[in-house]
Every structure is written in structure tokens, then in C-alpha cells.
Amino acid sequence: MIHPREGHCLAAIGSQFIYAIGSRLYNTSKTCEVFSIETNEWREQPELNRNRYLSTAVSLAERYIYVMGGYEPQVTDIERLDTQGSGASYWELIKVYSPGLENDIKYWFGSCPVSQTEILIFGGKKDGASSGSSYLFDTAQKQIIKTGNLPNKDTFYQRTFLLKGGKVYAYGYENDNAYIYSIQSRQWTKK
Questions:
Q1: Which residues contact 42 (CB under 8 A, 6 or more apart)?
Q2: Tens of pLDDT along 127-180?
Q3: With bands split at pLDDT 50, 70 and 90, how would you rate the model's confidence at 87?
Q4: What does DSSP say about strands 129-130 and 125-126: parallel, antiparallel, or unpaired?
Q5: 45 and 33 in contact (C-beta within 8 Å)?
Q6: Residues of the chain with CATH 2.120.10.30
Q7: Cα–chain-centroid distance for residue 126?
């Protein structure tokens, strides 16, 4: 990496690029860089609009990267980078209105794409308290929709999630539980 990082988030675009976003090493950071698997090198990318650490990043359609939450910005200050074409030159700041999400979650939450336009947001912390809340972010409509809660309050810091057969599989950080989200029913169960 070009910049030392701690508390950053990562996102992959296909099997070609890995993006490292934000940090809190020394000071919070807006920096972003990308690693190319093909050339085996890091390159600087446009800075974000907000300092980010303990944030979550999600890639959609092998093109877009969405960065949400973190310790400093409002969780509803979502940033998007279009990694192809002219959109790759800046991070778009998307402000969504969701008092429920703002009251429930700020950092250490899980997020997983569940369609070409929707991102599931779940668990996490705010003001030191864990959350069991769950939401869908519709990227096309730029709105947040409440879904069924997790069976337990939990965080998902630095976790990977699996989408398979219409379900999201998640493994909690605090409670050592496996959770399953049904996209059809918008409900969580515990395994």
C-alpha cells in the first residue's frame, strides 16, 4: 500500500482490483488506493468526501463501490465511486434520509449486496451499544427500508458475507453466531 492503514475497509471489483479505503492511522483519512492484480501495483484514487474509518464498503455490479458509516460521518452519508468511465474521477456523496438507521447503526455493521441495486445493512454499533437492526439501501431510489431485525444484537467488523440461493449468510463478531437472511421474506434467523 502507498499509505499505512488501520481501521480501513476493502472492496473488490471483479477479480482484478482491490480498493483500500479510509484509515485512522495517525489521523482519520479520506484516502483511497487500488491494487491491480495484473500489474501487482498500488495506485492512488480520488479522495472521499468524508474521513472514513471503521466504515463498510460494498461493490455492486462489478463497477460501483459504496462506502457507508464509520466513526466520523453520519451513517446516511453514503459515498459511491463508479470505477469505470468518467465517474472514476470522484466519489459521489449520496445523502439519504433515515432517522431509524441514524439512531441504530454507525460503525462495525455488516453489508452485503442482495441485488443489482440493493445493499443489506445489519448489526453494528452506535455510541458503544450493539445493534440488531437491519435495513435495505435501494441504490436506484436512494432510500433506506427497514427489514426484520437480527435474532441477537451483534457486530460484523471485518467480516465477509455469502449470498447464495436467495439468502445472505453472516457470522457475528461478538456472539459467535451464524445468521441467515431471507431476501424473499426480509427476515433473519439464527443457525
A1: 1, 2, 33, 34, 35, 36
A2: 989 999 999 999 999 999 999 999 999 999 878 899 999 999 999 998 889 999
A3: low
A4: antiparallel
A5: yes
A6: 1-95
A7: 15
1-95 classified as CATH 3.40.640.10: no
Closest to 22 (Cα-Cα) out of 3, 41, 36? 3
Each residue of 44-62: pLDDT tens digit? Answer: 999 999 999 899 999 999 9
Give the DSSP letter string of 45-82. -PPPSS-BSS-EEEEETTTEEEEE--SSS-TTEEEEEE
Q: Where are the beta strands (DSSP E) in 25-174?
A: 29-36, 41-44, 56-60, 64-68, 77-82, 91-95, 110-113, 118-122, 125-126, 129-130, 134-138, 143-146, 162-164, 167-171
Cell numbers found for residue 38: 495484473
Q: Supply the pLDDT for residue 153.
A: 95
